[in-house]
Amino acid sequence: MNKSAGILEIEAGITVMHNGFERIFSSVPIHFGKGVSLANGAYIYCTGKGDDIYIGDYSIIGGELILSPGTRIGTHCSFGTGTIIVAGSFCIGNGCVMSHGCTITQDVPDNSLVIGRRGLIFNK
């Protein structure tokens, strides 16, 4: 685990527990931007081989988040509990909101809302 200039980087294969509630496990490195917050009891999980994961500044993880290697998340994004980013190196644009239990199967443009298991995308 490396923290410099307010940015947290977690190496592959490391499990991080904070206060015994929030958990992070990933088979690839995860790079957290400034001000990323995890709700009490949130966890991030990723398995598979591929590129590093990047989570942009001031994003909020509201519960469980399952990521695929290579995922890129923009700034000021919010994730509800049970969000799944299915196999693929998808990009989530800046200012996006993912509802509880949604599945992401494609890139999401800036300022979008994603809802449901089918991952319906609504643009502002």
From TrEMBL:
The keyword Transferase applies. This is Transferase family protein. It comes from Phocaeicola salanitronis (strain DSM 18170 / JCM 13657 / CCUG 60908 / BL78) (Bacteroides salanitronis). Keywords: Transferase. One of its GO terms (molecular function) is transferase activity. InterPro entries: Trimer_LpxA-like_sf. The keyword Transferase applies.
